[in-house]
Protein 1
Amino acid sequence: QQPVQSPQAVILREGEDAVINCSSSKALYSVHWYRQKHGEAPVFLMILLKGGEQKGHDKISASFNEKKQQSSLYLTASQLSYSGTYFCGTERRRDDKIIFGKGTRLHILP
Amino acid sequence: NAGVTQTPKFQVLKTGQSMTLQCAQDMNHEYMSWYRQDPGMGLRLIHYSVGAGITDQGEVPNGYNVSRSTTEDFPLRLLSAAPSQTSVYFCASRRVGYNEQFFGPGTRLTVL
C-alpha cells in the first residue's frame, strides 16, 4: 500500500524547476507532502484533500488528480534551501493512518 | 510547548535485549504514530494510536509492542532486539481532524 514516488533522486541547479510525483493503487482521501533535511525530522509542507484545490506557498505547490490517485509537487525556481528528501504520505480515509512513500532526494547545486 | 519529544537520542543494544523507546507530546493530540526509517525504504509505519487505550498495527509491527495509557505518552517496546531493527525511529502526533503531523527528533538505534 506504500505510495510510489518518482523520481528517486533529482539534481538541479539553483533557479531550475522540479516536479516530484506520487501515485497510489488505492483510492485516496488525502495526500500529504513532507520535507526532511539530512539528520533532521520530516516537516509538513502541505496536504491535498479529495475534492480540494491545488495548494501552494512561496514557490512550492502541489496538485491531486483524484481519478488517477496521483499527486505532484512542483518546486519553482529552486533555492539551495529546497535540498532534502521529499516524502508523500497518503490517507485512505479522514483521520486514517498515514503511509509514506520511499522519498525523493533533491539536491540543489549553486 | 516542547512539541514531540523522544528519548533516548541514541541507543546501542545487543541481540536479544529488550528496551523501550519513549515518546511524549504536550499538544493534547489524539493521534500518535511510530515510524522507522531505513536507507532507501522511506518512513514505514510500525504502530499507531487514535487515543488513550486504542492502538493498531501499521505496515511493519512484528517485534514491537505499544500501549497508550495516557494521551501524552506512546512508548514503543522492542521485545527481543534483532540486527534487522537497527534503524532511526520517529514518533509523530497530530490532532484528529487537523492535517499537520508533527515529528519528534528521532532515536537512532543500533542492534549488534
Note: The radius of gyration of chain B is 13 Å.
Protein 2
Amino acid sequence: KAGVTQTPRYLIKTRGQQVTLSCSPISGHRSVSWYQQTPGQGLQFLFEYFSETQRNKGNFPGRFSGRQFSNSRSEMNVSTLELGDSALYLCASSLEVLGGGYTFGSGTRLTVV
Amino acid sequence: SQKIEQNSEALNIQEGKTATLTCNYTNYSPAYLQWYRQDPGRGPVFLLLIRENEKEKRKERLKVTFDTTLKQSLFHITASQPADSATYLCALRRDTGGFKTIFGAGTRLFVKA
C-alpha cells in the first residue's frame, strides 16, 4: 500500500514569503501529525489532527498553521518566513490503535534564503 | 516542562555485539513509549511500542524495556550488523491531557564490520 506522501520534496523560499506543504496519509489513517526537524533541536511537535479537528498544537508562533480535510489529507502553512524556519518538515499518520506507531513521510526540506 | 534525554554522543560498536541505547524522561507519565529508526534524509521508521504496564517487548533482534519508576527505557539490538547503523529515536505519548507525541533528539549508532 502507498505510504505517507509529502509534497513538495524540496523547497527554496525567500524571507517574508509564505509556504504551504501538503501531506497525504496512508489510506484509512485519520490521525495526522506534523513535526519540524532541525539538527540542533530534533523533532519538534507542530500539530496533531484527527477527523479535521486540531487536537493539539506545539509551541510555535502563530505564523505556523495547519488544517486537515475530510479525506484526511493535511496541509501546513508558514507565513512570513524567517531564516530559522529552514528545516525538514515531517508528516506522520497513524491508525490510532495501541500497538502501532506513526508512519512518517520522507519530509519536505524547506530552505529559507 | 517535559523532557526526553537520549545518549547525545554517538555509539560505536563492533559487528556482532549488542548495542544498548538509553532513553530517560522527566515531568511526564507516558501511556506508551515508541522507538524509531531514522536514516539520513528520510523520515523515522517505527520499530517497537511498549505500554506503561509492560516491562519488556521483543521483536526479532530488538528488545525494549520500560521502567516507569526509573523513568527510563532501554533499547537493545543483539547481533548488530553494519546495516543497523542509523539514528534511533524514542518517543513518548499520553492521550489524556492533550494528544501529542514528543521525541528525543536521538542517538546515532555506528556498527563497524
Note: The CA atoms of residues 3 and 76 of chain B lie 22 Å apart.
Protein 3
Amino acid sequence: QVQLVQSGAEVKKPGASVKVSCKASGYTFNTYAITWVRQAPGQGLEWMGWISAYNGNTDCAQSVQDRVTMTTDTSTSTAYMELRSLGSDDTAVYYCARGGNGWYPDYWGQGTLVTVSS
Amino acid sequence: EIVLTQSPGTLSLSPGERATLSCRASQSVSTYLAWYQQKPGQAPSLLIFSASSRATGIPGRFSGSGSGTDFTLTISRLEPEDFAVYYCQQYGSSPPNFGQGTRLEIK
C-alpha cells in the first residue's frame, strides 16, 4: 500500500531554516511528483509546490519561491522540502502528498508541525 | 491564477440528511477538480478526482458533479463520520489552488 511518512515536529527560531523529509513506499517513486502543502493553525490548505521525482522539475508558489528548495533522493524514495528565513507566519503543519504536475494529490503524509518562535 | 470559492462556509445538518457543497472557479478548469475531506488532527484525504470519479474506498454516498466553473459535492445521507471540513482543488493549471473550505457540522 502507498505510504508517505514524514519527519517529526520541529521548533525553529525566526530567521532559521527547516528541512522536512517525506519517505515514500508502496509504489515506484520516480513515476509521480511530490506535492507540498501547508496549513497554518485554524486555516485552510496552501499549496507550496511540487517536484517531479522523475526529472527534478519543480513548480512553486510565488509566496515561497524565493525561500523554498524541494529535492528528491530516488535511492531512498525520499522527498525533501527546505524553507529558509523562517518567520512566525511559517508556523504550520506541512504535508507532502503523491501527485502534482497536472495530477491530483492522492496519498498524503501524516504532516509535520513546524513552529517558529523566539 | 484561478481562484476557487466554496460555499457555504459552514453547513449545519443532521445525520441522515443530504449535503450539497459548492465550489466555483474564477475561470474554467474543465474537469480537473478534486475534493478532499479533512478531520481534526488528520491529513486531508482524497474523495473525488476528475470532478466526478470516486477515489478508492470512498463510499457511494459521496458524489461529485460539474465541469468548467461550477462543481458540486453531494453526500446523499450523512453519517456521523462525515462531519468534517471539505476542500476543493483545481489541478489543471498553475498554481493548483485550493478553495477555502466548507465546514460540515452536526446540527
Note: The radius of gyration of chain B is 13 Å.
